[in-house]
Amino acid sequence: MTKYLAILAFIVCSIQIGKAQDSPFGQVPDHTPMMNSTWETINKLMYKVTHQDNKTVYTPHFPDELKAIDKKKVVLPGYLVPINGGRDHETFMLSVLPVMQCMFCGQGDIPPMVEIFMKKGKKVRFTEEPIKITGTIHLNPNTQEGNSEIQVLDAELME
Predict the structure, then answer these.
(1) What pLDDT is stored for residue 128 in this prediction?
(2) 45: which of 14, 93, 101, 147 is 20 to 30 A away, CA to CA?
(3) Contact criterion met (CB below 8 Å) for 93 and 115
(4) Domain range holding 45?
């Protein structure tokens, strides 16, 4: 019986994957226009890989070009990726890819993303449409102080 349930689950998953590839939402927006010079610089983030106590440790390495934009005001277009549930978000990830386009399905690298911290009292309503954020870049070498190595602080939504 368990064998038949496993086969049934496999078939259902295969059908769902096929349907997802047919894109029931129509054409997935091309994310190329989201890239700008700031995103290109952010994409230069690298990691130093070390091993401690049989664990692999990834430490962010910020090349000089990336260090040059630290504490600078930037404008970033992108797609809101929620960290928490709800309609309105004070903190979220911003990506060059839309949420509908799975970034972990083996079709290339994980896209560059940054963690957004909105200016106090400001929120952004979830949308699948691209948004544009302005704020100050903060390079975060210690991910114990936030989720991402690159953050945008005091961010505001541009109309």
Answers:
(1) 87
(2) 101
(3) yes
(4) 28-158
